[in-house]
Amino acid sequence: MSGSKRNNGNQDMKEFKVAYLINLYPKVSHSFIRREILALERMGVQVERIALRGWDDLLVDQEDLRERQLTRYVLQAGAGTLIGAVIRLMVTVPVRFFAALALAVRMGRRADRSILYHLAYLAEACRVVTWLKSFGAAHIHAHFGTNPAEIVMLARVLGGPPYSFTVHGPEEFDKPQFLGMGEKIRRAAFVVAISSYGRSQLFRWVEQLHWSKIKVVHCGLESRFHSVAPLPLPAARRLVCVGRLCEQKGQLLLVEAVAKIVSQGTDLELVLAGDGEMRSEIESLIAKHQLQAVVRITGWISAERVRDEILAARALILTSFAEGLPVVIMEAMALRRPVLTTYVAGIPELVIPGQNGWLFPAGDIEAIVAAIRDFLPRTDDQLRVMGEAARARVIERHSVDVEASKLLEYFEQSALRDRKMKGDVVRYGG
């Protein structure tokens, strides 16, 4: 949408309003959500940011600090405000409230969390639906198919606008039955998967009747992130791994692979860009193999520092055991760096062996060693060719403005259906 008006049928979409619900926002690893929201705003959409938590988290990125000022936090004012919202809706819309209560209890029966958590989601939905009414949201979108998707589903039952949610994985793919994924999809206006692989996994948990509402919308990159002139490849044989230091990212296995290579007299540097719950364990493994001069951990860094670390390496490496489709792969490819990574989830849809990177089986240390050994002797010219191919592929598939325009079309279609169904009269929470 350029300007302030789009037409969909006879529907005037001027000042189209959408709300976003995220569990924790802003967050260093959720820059893709920020990019999506900002792209929608460039198209003229008014976006209300709602998060459960994140008002007091440590942030290093100036854009994240700005986003925090624009975000409303469900839990910031304490339990009293939630209880007040519950009582108000129980009194004003009892039929809707008890229908939502019954749904929350049903969602909790087979979940991995107790019914008390699902009752808390209902209370949060009561708070959210009040904000949706005051904002005038035509649609609400949640990121992640976990509790945010349940909250917007309950908000819909309470009288809120149609909802959708983006499934990223891998958590949603690990326990779809416990998350009630089928129920969330059935009740949604539409559901977004970030890859064809993700869409296929959602097909497994809902009847074919609902498959058409599952759309693929890629996470996108802003042009200013990668609009830098090609820089010479560093002379150092350096790889960078970007991501939270956690079990699913496989950094322990990567350190073991580097130890094997270095022990045989091969020069190599590895930068682990990020932080997380497994940092001390990884540091202990680095010390065990005496790799302190070879492996460096940066801790949490800003988006600009991430870009600098990628440009200071000859390639990106990710040894993840489970993923959706990592945004950092897109970022590295946009910066003309080939990628060495595992053959899991949506990654093979972007990384093509021999053209823009290397793929190897997850959990196979010998395969990691083999991929690194194949990468190390590549000349600057060979890596530049692969880097250009990587950039061309990711820009073609992951432009944030192109992907956000797809999302906006789905939002508009949802709002139009809802308005027609209600006779152009919308009431949220009463």
What is the average per-residue confidence, as pLDDT, rounded to a whole number? 93
Helix content: 40-55%
Distance from N terminus to C terminus (CA atoms, Å) equals 31 Å
Alpha carbon gyration radius: 23 Å
SS class: alpha/beta
Oligomer: single chain
Number of strands: 15
Rough outline? elongated
What is the helix tally? 17
Biggest sheet, spatial arrangement of strands? 5-4-3-6-7-8-9
- Strand proportion, as a percent range, falls in 5-15%
- The stretches of 5 or more residues where confidence is low (pLDDT under 50) are 1-13, 425-430
Largest sheet: 7 strands, parallel
Explain what you see.
With 430 residues, the chain is an alpha/beta fold. It is 46% helix and 15% strand. The chain contains 17 helices and 15 strands. A seven-stranded parallel β-sheet has the order 5-4-3-6-7-8-9, with helices on both faces. Helix 1 packs across helix 17 (400-421), helix 3 (79-92) crosses helix 4 (94-109) and helix 11 (251-263) crosses helix 15. The protein is elongated. The protein starts with 6 loop residues before the first strand and ends in a 9-residue tail after the last helix. The model is unreliable at 1-13 and 425-430 (pLDDT under 50).
